[in-house]
Amino acid sequence: MREIKYQAWDTNDERMISWQELLDYGSGLADYLQHPRELIFREYTGLKDLVGKEIYEGDILSFGLWSDTQKPCLHKIYWNDKTASFDVWDLRHNEWGGQADAFSEVIGNIYENPRVT
């Protein structure tokens, strides 16, 4: 069974907030809860990448290099309601790229690296 946890992107401060930080009343949880539209929650997929980093919805993953261009093979993680799973979106071909797995490396996310998407 996978561990359920989240992160949140604070749109005002433009920073990622850990779930533990949100749960810690000393860090201003009351302020965050009063402004729910200013937070975008990201769910943990239950997977870790090649170096052990947790993979969250909205993360950008590198699967190595494209053979024809030698440029990074980038995908983003999203929740697919139809398959009830975390899937990957191929950013080069702008199409579904399969299901998320641990054979990749997290190199950023769509909030801190919006130009990639």
Give an overview of the whole structure.
There is one protein chain. The longest helix is centred in the first third of the chain and has 6 residues, at 29-34. This protein has one domain (6-109). Helix content is 9%, strand content 46%. The radius of gyration is 15 Å and the shape is globular. The protein has helices at 19-23, 29-34; strands at 6-10, 15-18, 39-48, 54-56, 59-65, 72-80, 85-90, 95-99, 105-109. It is mainly beta and 117 residues long. A hairpin with a 6-residue loop joins strand 5 and strand 6. Strands 8-7-6-5-9 form a five-stranded antiparallel β-sheet, with no helix packed on it. A four-stranded antiparallel β-sheet has the order 2-1-3-4.
Topology of helices and strands:
Layout: E1 6-10, E2 15-18, H1 19-23, H2 29-34, E3 39-48, E4 54-56, E5 59-65, E6 72-80, E7 85-90, E8 95-99, E9 105-109
* Secondary structural class: mainly beta
The number of helical runs is 2
Gyration radius, rounded: 15 Å
What number of structural domains do the residues give? Answer: 1
How big a fraction of the residues is strand? Answer: over 45%
Shape: globular
* Major sheet attributes: 5 strands, antiparallel
What's the N-to-C terminus distance? 31 Å
Low-confidence stretches: none
Number of strands: 9
Indicate the mean pLDDT. 83
Percent helix, as a range, is under 10%
What strand order characterises the main sheet?
Answer: 8-7-6-5-9
